[in-house]
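Design a sequence for this backbone.
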């Protein structure tokens, strides 16, 4: 079994999340099949709650028996070979010490996929050559290792260069680490003075930007006072539920010559749903035990109860549909393109997009409703959700910036044939009262579809 198979099983356990969806897209996968019977009822409910935030990565949805089939769109972020750094370190393979780890570190926001049909080479001082294959995929912000067994003639100390086929470059050994030309001096500094039990003090932090968009990297610079050489620092990007999305690990005190400024970079892939995220800082001992932060009164506080550094992630700005805008009384504008030549069968899914725009601040929680009205006037399919699946309410939207939201409605299996109206509107989340249009009425006719048996 290839090691990458075990890695993928681990990654895909958390599907859908930004890493798993990005890896699947970058691999060129066309379809994902979710077998509902393979999940517990609680797991399946969680997946169906999370999936709407990732409809932007899905072109079509199908139900086949008990399975949900997702046809994916191509990735929005392009990986870069220049973002993959390579280094070499001695390793032990099957108890044999004469092995070498080739470490691939992806410092970009998109998973890098190698062409495993090409062979890379290690070149040694005595003319020996050792072939190996680069890792199939390196997720954003992650490392992958390839362990190469060596013979006595091809000792690690005699390694000169490595020809990397997929990365299309040759690196020298030892290869000097890449020099960063990014200065953190322009990043806003926030004094903190947070002490960790029997450990360092986090004097201040600098965040590259309080807001981010997909296909970018976010930098967090930590200013430490003191610290133990064996300790490590973890910075975690967490979603609105506190779940870890990506993680960066450093050992800022491993070298006496190392600067007290500890810089972490975390990816924001194109598969990251918009919303209010957080950056959480942990300090761990060599044994993996957490050093708890302390309050001003010296009381230890569990790290997951420490408020994270807030990070707002906005969606990419898309093109504005060339259709007239419809304005609601709360200052929200809708531009809806009609689905073209859509034919559904009962039980089928309608996948569509709506482009919204906030013309003035919206402080109340608002829910979007979308419905399929049959020829009999009944609702045969409906989906209600707050913008961004609740992660990106209108209150977080920049004014006058169009945002395209993705939707999917499953038509009832009992739906009769005929012509259906797709409508959309807004209502107050607390009261359920619909918000009127500036011209009257409480919904917008988006378009029509046909239902055939």
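Sequence:
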């Amino acid at each position: 079994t290839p090691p990458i198979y075990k890695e993928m099983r681990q990654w895909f356990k958390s599907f859908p999340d930004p890493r798993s969806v990005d890896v699947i897209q970058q691999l060129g996968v066309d379809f994902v099949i979710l077998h509902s019977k393979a999940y517990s009822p609680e797991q399946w409910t969680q997946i169906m709650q999370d999936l709407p935030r990732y409809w932007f990565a899905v072109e079509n949805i199908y139900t086949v028996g008990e399975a949900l089939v997702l046809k994916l769109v191509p990735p929005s972020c392009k990986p870069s070979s220049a973002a993959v750094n390579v280094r070499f370190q001695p390793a032990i393979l099957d108890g044999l010490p004469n092995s070498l780890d080739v470490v691939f570190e992806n410092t970009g926001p998109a998973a890098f996929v190698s062409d495993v049909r090409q062979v890379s080479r290690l070149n040694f001082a005595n003319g020996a050559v050792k072939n190996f294959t680069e890792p199939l995929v390196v997720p954003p912000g992650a490392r992958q290792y390839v362990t190469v067994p060596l013979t006595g003639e091809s000792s690690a100390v005699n390694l000169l260069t490595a020809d990397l086929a997929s990365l299309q470059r040759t690196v020298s050994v030892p290869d000097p680490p890449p020099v960063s030309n990014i200065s953190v001096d322009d990043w806003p500094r926030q004094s903190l003075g947070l002490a960790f039990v029997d450990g360092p003090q986090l004097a201040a932090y600098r965040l590259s930007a309080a807001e981010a968009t997909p296909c970018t990297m976010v930098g967090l610079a930590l200013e430490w006072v003191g610290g133990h050489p064996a300790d490590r620092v973890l910075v975690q990007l967490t979603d609105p539920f506190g779940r870890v999305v990506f993680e960066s690990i450093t050992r800022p005190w491993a070298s006496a010559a190392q600067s007290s400024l500890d810089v972490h970079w975390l990816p924001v892939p194109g598969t990251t749903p918009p919303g209010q995220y957080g950056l959480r800082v942990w300090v761990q001992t060599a044994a993996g035990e957490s050093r708890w932060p302390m309050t001003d009164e010296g009381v230890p506080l569990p790290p997951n109860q420490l408020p994270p550094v807030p990070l707002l992630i906005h969606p990419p700005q898309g093109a504005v549909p060339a259709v007239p805008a419809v304005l609601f009384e709360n200052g929200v504008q809708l531009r809806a393109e009609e689905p073209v030549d859509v034919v559904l069968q009962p039980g089928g899914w309608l996948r569509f997009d709506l482009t919204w725009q906030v013309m003035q601040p919206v402080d109340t929680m608002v829910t979007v409703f979308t419905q399929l009205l049959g020829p009999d006037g009944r609702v045969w399919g409906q989906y209600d959700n707050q913008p961004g699946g609740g992660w990106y309410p209108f209150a977080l939207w920049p004014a006058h910036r169009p945002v395209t939201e993705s939707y999917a409605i499953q038509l009832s299996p009992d739906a009769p044939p005929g012509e259906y109206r797709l409508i959309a509107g807004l209502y107050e989340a607390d009261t359920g009262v619909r918000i009127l249009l500036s011209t009257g009425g409480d919904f917008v006719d988006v378009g029509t579809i046909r239902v055939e048996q």
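The chain has three helices and 30 strands.
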